[in-house]
Each structure stands twice: as C-alpha cells, then as structure tokens.
Amino acid sequence: MTALLEVALGVIFAFLLVSLLVTAFTELVAAFTRWRARNLWNAVKAMLGEQSARSLRNHSVVASLGSPSWLGNLAGRLRPESAQGPSYIPAPTLAMVVVDLVLQPHASRQAAVLEIRRAAASVQAMSDPALIANVLTRLAAALPATPSFEDIKTQITHWVADVDNGKLTVPDLVANLRTLAAAAPALGLSDWAVHISELTTIDERLKEALQTLARKAGDDIERFRSEIETWFDAMMKRVSGWYKRKMQAVSFAAALGLACWLDIDTIRIAQVLWLDSTLRQVVVAQAEAFANQPPEELAPPKAVERFEYWTSQLLRTQLPIGRCPAQTDPEADAVGTTDRNGVLEARATQGVTPWWCDDERFKQRPWFLGWLLTALAASLGAPFWFDLLQKVVHIRSSGAPPAKAPNREAETP
C-alpha cells in the first residue's frame, strides 16, 4: 500500500510540473498573440458595432489602459490591429466613455445653453436683419434634435420672421435669447432615446441597445451608466467563457506537444517508479519538499523566463522523462536528464542502461497512450495537482486526510 501511494505521489508530482510548464507555455503564446486584447476587441465589436468600437478604442481614456509587453510590440509589427487596445476595460470606464462619445457631444444641455448665449452676444452688436437671421438659423440647427428643444426651435424660427418684418427689435431679441438660455430644458434620457435613433455616428446595433437602456433608466443618468455597466459585465462573462474554452483547447494541444517532445509517458513513469524503489524514494522526497515548501516565486515576471524555469525544473527531477543519457551530451546539456542527483550516473558507471531508455519500448508498449494521459492530466491545471499533491503528502505522513474546517453555519441554531 505504501509503494502504491508513493507511485501515485510521484505521478502527481510529474503532472504538477508538466501543468506548470504548460501554463508558462500558453501564457507565452497568449502574450505574443495578444489573445486577451483580441478577445476583448471582438466582444466590444459585437456589442457596439465596428465603427463605435473603433471610436471607443481610440478614446484617450481607453488607450491609456493598454500596456503591451515586448512580445506584444513584436506581435503588433506582424499584426498591427491585434496589438492595439488594452486586454481589460473596467465596466465603469466603458460606461463613461460610451456616454462621452455618443451622448454628451450631441445631447448636452450645457452645450445648448452655450450656443444660445453666443447667439445673444453676436446679435447684440448687429443691425442687419439678414445677418441676425443667419445667426438665429445657425442657432436652431445647432440645438439638439429632441422633443424638449423642438418648441425652442419653433420659437427661434418665428423670431427670424419677426426680425425680417421689423416686429422684433435687437434689444428685445437679445433679452428673449437670454431668457431662453436660462429656461432651456434639461435633456432627459427619454429625449436621448429619441435622439440616439437619429445619430449617424454610431452603429445600428449600439443604437438599439442604448435606446433600450435609456428607456429603462428613465431620466436618471447614474442609473443609465449602471445599466451600461451591467450590460458590459454580462458580455465580459461570456467573453471569459470563450477565452477559457480556447485556452483549454490550446493547453491540451500544448501539453500533448510537450509530452511528445520531452517524452513524458505517464505509463512509463508509473512503471519505473513501481519497479525502482531507489528512484521512487528520491522522487517522493522531491515531491514532499515541493509540497511543504513550494518555490516562493512560481511565476517569474516574464513569460519566457517562466517557461525556461519550469522546463529546467522538470528535467532536473529523477523522473524517467526526456532524453536518456545515451542520447545526451553531458557537457552540452548539463541541466538536462544527466543532472539527476547521481541516480542515472550510478547506473551508467556500472555499465547499466536504464530499461526505460531502450528504443524497443516503442514497439512493445502503447507509448502514445502514455503521452495522451499526460496531456489530459496537464490540462486540468497546476492548482488542481498542487492541491492533490499536498493532500497525498499529508495522507502519507499522517495516515489520514486533512481535517476540514467545521461548518459553523450548520451549528448555528
């Protein structure tokens, strides 16, 4: 029973190291291809439409969120569009930018009031009815095309006719404009819903979504922003699901490729650990040391360094993986399989070649099945195998699984 548990511990340790190596490799690929940024960009295009999404991405607030690495910059030279934009946009930031890009420039009460005051200042020094009519006409065209301002536009049109007929003097017109500026209606979201439908600067997809959200929010601008945030969060949850499924597929492919490249055969590892008690004890000691005191920095800052680190850690173990000593130059590959704390070297000194290095094994056993099992196990992720490793180490050392914390809620009367 003890030997079986030790074999399981060694296999789990191998799966953990392979999972860490696969994670480092997939993050290296993701950093180069900028998958996260591209997934976010595709999601924003699906939400807003391509034209509005480009405006969002080019906004200064959103552009400042991006911080590509040197791998991302290299990818940008090969695929310029894929390297643009951030990998994550907070929902409040997106809501703010959408309101700024779509609503504020076209439907701002402050902008309307400013236009009316400018018109009053302009006509105050004028006496030519034609020039005054031109100012009033431009003012009417500059006001928001919403029901709240339709009456104001109609009134301005009447003033144009009164100025032409001499019924309205310049001082009276200036006074009327100032009164109009003070009484300009606040632009409600119900007006915005109508105004949005008339915009030509955004996609139809975004128009429909914003109209629905504006009607739902009523005249509460904060609720409108909150509705946009909720809408964006719901989309981001779906994007996270897409990304996870893609990464799972990529992780499995990477795990299978690494298993073939490094010859990480689960069946062979289990057989060697079962038959070789000396090697088994060495691997168990390594696994216990890793479980009890894992490396302080499991994820070095750069993807390339992380990949190199876990590759060397995997090859430094006594596990029967990688190229065999007979196929390796000890001087050129000092960090490879020849550096196994004397286990392989002792056999080589005695003139004994480890039986798992025999090329005939490819004719005798289902070696591809061992690679496939390794890939399937590695695709479960390093956290899963690290937790399992700690549990098995605890079982081996104490004979019982770690006690679970009592359910205090169940004890509450």
Main features:
about 425 residues, rod-shaped, disordered C terminus, single chain, 3 domains, about 0% strand, mainly alpha
* Mean pLDDT level: 72
Largest sheet: none
Sequence of secondary-structure elements: HHHHHHHHHHHHHHHHHHHHH
Q: Tell me the Rg in angstroms.
A: 35 Å
Strand percentage lies at under 5%
Give the % helix.
Answer: over 70%
User: Structural class, from secondary structure content?
Assistant: mainly alpha
Q: Work out the count of structural domains.
A: 3
Shape descriptor reads rod-shaped
Report the uncertain regions: 325-356, 403-413
Note the total helix count.
21
Q: How far is the N terminus from the C terminus?
A: 43 Å
SS elements, strand count: 0
How would you characterize the overall build of this protein?
By secondary structure, the chain is an all-alpha fold. The protein folds into 3 domains: 2-28 and 243-398, no CATH class; 37-104 and 201-241, no CATH class; 109-186. 71% of the residues lie in helices and 0% in strands. The protein contains 21 helices and no strands. It has helices at 2-33, 35-48, 50-58, 60-63, 70-78, 91-103, 109-123, 129-142, 147-165, 170-182, 189-198, 204-217, 221-262, 266-275, 277-292, 303-316, 343-349, 361-364, 367-378, 382-398, 408-411. The longest helix is centred in the middle third of the chain and has 42 residues, at 221-262. The protein is rod-shaped, with a radius of gyration of 35 Å. The two termini are 43 Å apart. Residues 325-356 and 403-413 have low confidence and may be disordered.
